[in-house]
From TrEMBL:
Transmembrane regions listed in the UniProt entry: 35-57
Keyword line: Membrane, Transmembrane, Transmembrane helix
LysR substrate-binding domain residues: 8-102
Keyword Membrane on entry: yes
Protein's name according to its UniProt entry: LysR substrate-binding domain-containing protein
Length: 118
């Protein structure tokens, strides 16, 4: 089955196979797509296997169009930060920040499974 590649993360599959302790000389082969949404459509159409953040394919998983093929997730190298103006935070922003922290602590999956650490 082809490995669907994201052009902005060209070494994603290599990193995944390395983290799994597997040798995959053709990990960089496979069709390349610019956006996660394009990869999700390609995977849904049966064109290959994708590395996807589960939060981006919740609807497809709920419909049964896509399934998580491997329960082990790869911890990403990138990070996202919540940034706000330097002025005191509004109550709604404080509440959102607390909610976001709780959600991030749940891991990559809605059921609470944690992403694998490298």
């Amino acid at each position: 089955m082809p490995l669907l590649q994201q052009s902005t993360r060209p070494y994603g599959w290599r990193q995944w196979f390395d983290a799994m302790g597997m040798d995959a000389p053709r990990a960089l082969d496979g069709p390349r797509y610019e956006l996660f949404s394009m990869i999700a459509v390609a995977a849904t159409m049966g064109l290959g296997v994708a590395l996807m953040p589960p939060m981006l394919i919740e609807a497809e998983m709920e419909r049964g169009d896509l399934v998580i093929a491997c329960p082990r997730a790869l911890q990403g190298e990138r990070a996202y930060y919540l940034v706000t103006p330097a002025q005191p935070a509004a109550t709604v922003l404080t509440a959102f920040s607390a909610w976001l922290g709780r959600m991030a602590g749940m891991g990559a999956y809605p059921d609470g499974r944690q992403a694998m650490e490298e």
